[in-house]
Amino acid sequence: MSNEENCFQGIVAQAQTAGAEVGPVRDQLVLDLYRQTQEIARQVVKRQGKKEDFDHKIDDFVTSKYFGYPLMLTLLSLILWLTVSGANYPSQLLSNLLFGFGSHLTALCQWLKAPDWLHGILVLGLYRCMAWVISVMLPPMAIFFPLFTFLEELGYLPRVAFNLDRGFKRAGAHGKQVLTMCMGFGCNAAGVTACRIIESPRERLIATLTNNFVPCNGRFPTLIAMAAIFLSALVGTANNLLTTGLVVGVVVFGILVTLLISRLLSQTLLKGVPSTFTLELPPYRWPKMGTLLIRSVLDRTLFVLVRAVVVAAPAGMIIWILANVYIGEVSIIGHLGGFLQGFGYLLGLDGYIILAFLLGLPANEIVIPILIMSYLSEGVMVEPSSIEDLHRLLVANGWTWLTALNMMLFSLLHFPCATTLLTIRKETQSLKWTVLAALIPTGVAILVCFLVAQLARACGLV
Amino acid sequence: MNCQHVGTLKVLSKLNQDKSDAVIALAGNPNTGKSTVFNGLTGLKQHTGNWPGKTVVLAKGNYRYRNKIITLVDLPGTYSLLANSADEQVARDFICFGNPEATIVVVDATCLERNLNLVLQVIEITPRAILCVNLIDEAKRKGIVIDFPKLEALLGIPVVPTAARDKVGLAALKESLHQVVFEHKQLQPLSIRYQERIEVAVATIQREIEPFLRGKINSRWVALRLLDGDTTLITEILNYISGTGPDSWEQGSNELKAVKCYE
Fold first, then answer.
1. Is A46 within 8 Å of B212 when comparing Cβ atoms?
2. Of A247, A284, B21, B141, which residue is the least packed, with the fewest Cβ within 10 Å?
3. What is the tens place of the pLDDT at every residue in A315-329?
């Protein structure tokens, strides 16, 4: 290093100290800059006639102090309500159809005199797991994705980012994180990839690490089913409105956790101040319905479904084997479940639920099928084709409202699925951050579930 | 992902292979019709290429006006030059270290106020700038009237209204550019004034940094960036001033490389 360079670095260091003394320099520079452009525009630009900008009027409402948040909540509730109430019937239909076909397959196996284990692996394991995933996931996705794409094409999402920017800034994070979270509703892996739109590496990491707190489409069916079970266990009935309300509550809780963890991260591991950015609010455009349907159904719904089925099929086989191979008197899955029972109980869950989440690492969609299969292997012979059947099965296995609630919370907060983790690894190019991306949410999930369970038990509510 | 750290100098040496009389940078916000202006000026004589090591595309084209060959470099569309993103950094580096004979800033007449932010940042780096106010036809439809002479007086640089889609104003833009580049029309652009405490700090740094820059870069702007703690700039400045290639800097720029890899 030459002498001159050292001198230069000295000035750089000196400038940095001076900058620290002045305070948030970047913000002040941008503020002064905006003040001057505003002044120039005021002198130079005139608006003639009554042709007022329609978009501006809408934006004044959509991003206003009083209507911004309620409107967002209303739209979120509306989308979820349409999904919850619209998905019930087609789900039932698909389930009857697919499980009906399953019994034909069983008949076929008998006719072919296939050995029991083959029938078990292929029909009871592989086929049933796939049938469950398709009948539970396809209808909500086919409703949710087009609605969501509609809002996206309309140009509403940047307004959401605008509304929530203040909150994220206060948490030391980037306003565009909201957009990555919106993508996360579809799929967390997509959400993590979307974090590329955040330019500052620090804020991008925060967004990457917390994206999982937004429930993806693989977890929505779980949340919806658990919300219904929670409500029928607690108040006796579960109508669509109450279920939607509870799911919205869980989503909002996830957003609050996102803010909290973002804030903690930006004060500890990822110290720094949020950077300034320009968010363009694009003009509203009425979406082309044909393109919208094709894009949301082909690009999103089918894409996610195929991925889920590809993962669910082999997982179904493995689970069936685990549930039907006995060591002593108990199946392997029984051994594992028993081993995890104590830990599960501490969290207000049970051993099988923990096992289902662990085995569901490849994809969140298969957590419930795994759980059902492990309960069924314990001898309760019910084929759950509806929420009521599922409810009966779960109660028979010792479920209370607390189990359903904590199952929702754990599902919302726990480690990301394998695909998301791989995506995080690819995007961050760092094993350390990938491991943290799994550990942080899991820690939060354990802590929250533990506290809820202990509180409920201490108050004698369960 | 390409993790090679490549500075501006390599790009410039490539650019200079062309026989042209002047290199002009074309900057502007996204969605201002910048590419339409670029296409309108250069016709089909253009090449696109990646900025080395980054996923930023630069387009380059030529046109001839009054017997001079002008090379136009279409920079990525950005809202600012604060180097928040790879795009912004490339645009900034080119305007600052690429020594373009002039920089054309294309703005959208329908939202002039928002676009002016970039204009003020450009003239903070270089005095040789021309403002191209595009989409005046759309502004007229929306009932927006802009006082161009007043804008020119306030900014201190030539202002040319255009509707590039219909080739309106492009001839005037070429002429204005010709005057700035070849007839050395003197420009006195507006300088942004900041809060007193920032101005005081900047003045101190500016005094100290002045000798290092040898008049190659605007010292006030460098002082502002240093005060802002912009580390991406430091390596580039050192490369630029010492005139060494970026390769000799590999070791010193490890931290910077990590950041770029991440991008």
1. no
2. B141
3. 888 888 888 888 888
Cα–Cα distance for residue pair B216/A16, rounded to 1 Å: 22
Q: Secondary structure of chain B: what % helix, strand, coil (to 5)?
A: 50, 20, 35
Domain extents in chain A? 80-272+312-458
Chain B residues touching A25 at Cβ < 8 A: 198, 227-229
Q: Across the interface, do A43 and B147 touch by the CB < 8 Å criterion?
A: yes
Q: Where are the domains of chain B?
A: 8-182, 196-262
Cβ–Cβ below 8 Å for B85 and A199 = yes
Is B263 in Cβ contact with A40 (below 8 Å)? no
CB-based burial of residue A169 (10 Å sphere; 0-12 exposed, 13-18 middle, 19+ buried)?
middle
User: For B101-131, what is each residue's pLDDT tens digit?
Assistant: 899 999 988 888 888 989 999 998 888 899 9
Q: What is the pLDDT of residues A40-89, one digit of tens each?
A: 888 888 877 544 567 777 888 888 878 888 998 899 899 888 888 888 78
- Count of CA atoms in the C-beta half-sphere (13 A) of A436: 15
CATH of domain B8-182: 3.40.50.300
Residue numbers in A near B154 (CB within 8 A): 40, 43-44
Q: pLDDT of B81-98, one tens digit each?
A: 886 777 788 888 888 888
CB hemisphere CA count around A72 (13 angstroms): 20
From chain A, the residues in CB contact with B250 under 8 A are: none
Across the interface, do A41 and B86 touch by the CB < 8 Å criterion?
no
Chain B residues whose beta carbon lies within 8 Å of the beta carbon of residue A22:
197-198, 201, 227
